[in-house]
């Protein structure tokens, strides 16, 4: 046997030894694992997490029940407006959820053995750096607090904020949600809310203008308008003031109008305006009084 053959044989034996030794090492490592201890830890922590989640959901449901019951009692005894009740309830409910989820996260990390003190120390340093760029966030919180404190608007109010016109859906310490009448949902950071036009706080005006010809018998118009008012106004308790009959107005360019003003509960002004305008016009035409059409034309003589 030559020298090359001897070397090849030696190399083959070394490879075989390594191949045999590798599974043995893997088996020894596998056998060295304390599976009983690991399974015990997994079961212990799993049960602890299960009990924590169970307690969390029980306390959360109990807190929501007590909160709802307390608010329902307050709205009955102190006659709180429904919109105001909904606004405050949502804010308190959100704050309660934040508290519960904070303690839930704290409990989970504690069970898993995460060093919370180290995380809090790191969070403090990171928070200082982040806080330098969080001025808008703080401004959102401050502005949201004053919106709620001063009751500038409540959930369900019809508001106009800048170019956005719609209904308040939700009020939070950071953002306010407004739903436009076309269904668009707007999320407004509170620091961007400066001028607010709340269209839901006071009685609203319903203005009825009836276009007439200059040679119309206005005494007959007044009598007809009064008849319609006597018949319809008692049927609509949403009218809180009026009708105030202003009478004849010169609109310019030969245009004459007969004006009547109502004040109604918020949100009812358009219904009253349309109803009375239609009723006035039908009654006037039934009395033979001509109503001009557009473009404005004088009746033929």
Automatic annotation (TrEMBL):
The chain crosses the membrane at residues 35-59, 99-132. SUPFAM superfamilies: Mechanosensitive channel protein MscS (YggB), C-terminal domain, Mechanosensitive channel protein MscS (YggB), transmembrane region, Sm-like ribonucleoproteins. GO terms for molecular function: mechanosensitive monoatomic ion channel activity. It comes from the Bacteria. Belongs to the MscS (TC 1.A.23) family. The keyword Hydrolase does not apply. InterPro entries: LSM_dom_sf, MS_channel_1st, MscS_beta-dom_sf, MscS_channel_2nd, MscS_channel_C_sf, MscS_channel_TM-2, YbiO_bact. Keywords: Cell membrane, Membrane, Transmembrane, Transmembrane helix. Residues 137-201 form the Mechanosensitive ion channel MscS domain. Its main location: membrane. Residues 95-135 form the Mechanosensitive ion channel transmembrane helices 2/3 domain. It is found in: Cell membrane. It is a multi-pass membrane protein. GO terms for cellular component: plasma membrane. This is Mechanosensitive ion channel mscs transmembrane-2. The keyword Membrane applies.
């Amino acid at each position: 046997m030559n020298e090359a053959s001897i070397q090849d044989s030696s190399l083959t034996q070394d490879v075989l030894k390594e191949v045999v030794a590798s599974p043995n090492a893997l088996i020894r490592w596998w056998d060295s694992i304390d599976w009983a201890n690991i399974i015990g830890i997994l079961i212990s922590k799993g049960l602890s997490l299960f009990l924590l989640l169970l307690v969390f959901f029980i306390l959360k449901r109990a807190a929501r029940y007590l909160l709802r019951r307390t608010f329902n009692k307050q709205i009955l005894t102190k006659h709180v407006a429904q919109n105001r009740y909904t606004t405050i309830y949502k804010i308190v409910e959100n704050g309660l959820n934040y508290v519960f989820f904070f303690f839930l996260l704290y409990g989970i990390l504690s069970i898993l053995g995460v060093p919370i003190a180290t995380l809090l120390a790191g969070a403090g340093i990171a928070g200082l750096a982040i806080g330098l760029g969080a001025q808008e966030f703080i401004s959102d919180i401050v502005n949201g607090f004053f919106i709620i404190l001063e009751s500038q608007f409540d959930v369900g109010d019809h508001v106009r904020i800048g170019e956005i016109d719609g209904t308040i859906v939700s009020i939070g310490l950071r953002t306010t949600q407004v739903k436009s009448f076309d269904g668009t949902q707007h999320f407004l950071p509170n620091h961007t809310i400066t001028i607010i036009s709340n269209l839901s706080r006071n009685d609203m005006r319903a203005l009825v203008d009836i276009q007439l010809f200059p040679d119309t018998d206005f005494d007959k118009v007044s009598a007809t308008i009064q008849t319609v008012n006597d018949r319809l106004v008692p049927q609509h308790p949403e009218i809180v003031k009026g009708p105030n009959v202003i009478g004849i107005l010169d609109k310019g360019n030969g245009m004459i109008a007969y004006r009547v003003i109502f004040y109604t509960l918020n949100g009812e002004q358009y219904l009253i305006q349309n109803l009375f305008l239609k009723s006035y016009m039908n009654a006037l035409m039934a009395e033979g009084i001509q109503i001009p059409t557009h473009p404005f034309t004088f009746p033929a003589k």
